[in-house]
Amino acid sequence: VLPGLLAGVRALVTAGPTREPLDPVRFIGNRSSGRMGFALAEALEELGAMVTLIAGPTLLPLPCVTKHVQIETALEMYKAVMARVAECDLFVATAAVTDYRPAAPAPTKIKKETEALTVELVRNPDILAEVAARRPAPFTVGFAAETDHLEDYARDKLERKGVDLIAANQVGGLVGGFERAENALTVLWRGGRKELPLMDKHRLARELALLIAERYRAHAGG
Ligand code: PMT
């Protein structure tokens, strides 16, 4: 490892899922365990970055980073990011932000009184896109979780959200993605790409952190 590669760099990393309450006991969420994001936060810190990790609910022990912020919903994650983004040089969005939330969560437990239940959902803000659109913006790294057309959809996210680098992973298959100990990534940036084959998420995170550091330094002119 090259411990000083990101010395003095202030990094903001999101990880894990968000939970969107339907009522006081139920929520809409997703399968993110936080493994990939926690491993990446730790790998960036190992390269010398000062990492603030903003994470949704997970069962994992917290990684060794400079600062932790725990949140539950996408709106809380959004507020936690926006409160800190002006003081960061590098933003890494590993979180699986739940894209929609119930428009009006019930104040008390929903009773089984009808055969069918319709819940109105409203869009959550796109944290990554909003951070990338800031001027000045930090160096932004996004993830793309896709079940199909991995590289095409990821390249589209890179352009549409205006991020500097995107790490695409296949989800919903038999290997890698959510919850598992291993993952594989196709990393894309304007004018380049690199395949990181299936490996343990800790090792993968170290390889990705090195690539991020390389692109960050090229971008910063050093
Ligand atoms: O946590 P694990 O179990 O280890 O699983 C890891 C992972 C599969 C969750 C991770 O590797 C991953 O792919 N994270 C991104 C999941 C995701 O929500 O992807 P997306 O393609 O829907 O979103 C694209 C990007 O926009 C992501 O960087 C996401 O953090 C960001 N986003 C999305 C929606 C939103 N409202 N705000 C965002 O910032």
Description:
The structure is a single chain. The protein is α/β, with parallel strands linked by helices and 222 residues long. The chain has a single domain (10-103, 116-220), classed as 3-Layer(aba) Sandwich (Rossmann fold). It has helices spanning 35-46, 74-82, 127-132, 150-161, 201-220, and strands spanning 10-15, 20-21, 27-28, 50-55, 67-70, 90-93, 100-102, 121-123, 139-146, 165-170, 182-189, 192-200. The strands form 3 sheets. The protein has an 8-stranded mixed sheet, with helices on both faces. A two-stranded antiparallel ribbon has the order 2-3. The radius of gyration is 18 Å and the shape is globular. 41% of the residues are buried. The mean pLDDT is 96. The structure holds ligand PMT. The site of ligand PMT has 28 residues, from helix 1, helix 3 and strand 9.
CATH superfamily: CoaB-like
Q: Regarding CATH, which class?
A: Alpha Beta
Strand content: 25-35%
Q: How many strands, which pairing sense, and closed or not: the largest β-sheet?
A: 8 strands, mixed
User: Mean pLDDT, as a whole number?
Assistant: 96
- Which fold name is given in CATH as the topology? Rossmann fold
Q: Whole-Å distance between the termini?
A: 19 Å
Strand line-up in the sheet with most strands: 5-4-1-6-9-10-11-12
User: How many structural domains are formed by the residues?
Assistant: 1
CATH architecture: 3-Layer(aba) Sandwich
Radius of gyration of CA atoms, rounded to a whole number: 18 Å
Oligomer: single chain
Instruction: Provide a count of the helices.
Output: 5
